Amino acid sequence: MRLLYQNNTTFNWRVYSNHSDWGIDCNHICWFGNKLIIIYKEKHSHYLVKIENFNVDILFIGLITHICITEENVIYIKQKDNKGILQRIYVNIYQTSVNSVPEKYIEKMPDVHLENFEEFRLD
Questions:
Q1: C-alpha atoms less than 13 angstroms from C-alpha of 32 in its C-beta half-sphere
Q2: Which of 42-46, 80-84, 106-110 is most confident?
Q3: Which of 4, 6, 96, 112 is the most exposed place for a label (fewest CB within 10 A)?
Q4: Partners of 28 in beta bridges
Q5: Total structural domains in the chain?
Q6: 104-to-85, 88, 112, 113, 114 alpha-carbon distances in Å
Q7: Element (H, E) at 105
Q8: Is 73 inside a domain boundary?
Q9: Does the pLDDT of residue 5 top 80, yes or no?
């Protein structure tokens, strides 16, 4: 992947995969302020990656079954065999944090509506 910034600086990144011979499918790519968020799938797993200031951080590895991205730039991920726990990835201009949240708490949050990942599209 090659990114060209406004000041004509180029950033090259080779997508991480345990199975590079299998290839990848890029599911979603979008900007959250100054952070580029990429969700892609290789043979066995989905990866959620953040690129910011020429640094690449893998924020999630697993099989995504459901997802929600709120207006506050919080990404909720339900993965296969989640055992009632969701991953919450908070992305804003100042920080990024990843933590686990019991699924029963999500039911009490009116702005969180998990969608089937296979049908999910960013607006």
A1: 26
A2: 42-46
A3: 6
A4: 39
A5: 1
A6: 8, 13, 12, 13, 13
A7: helix 103-106
A8: yes
A9: no
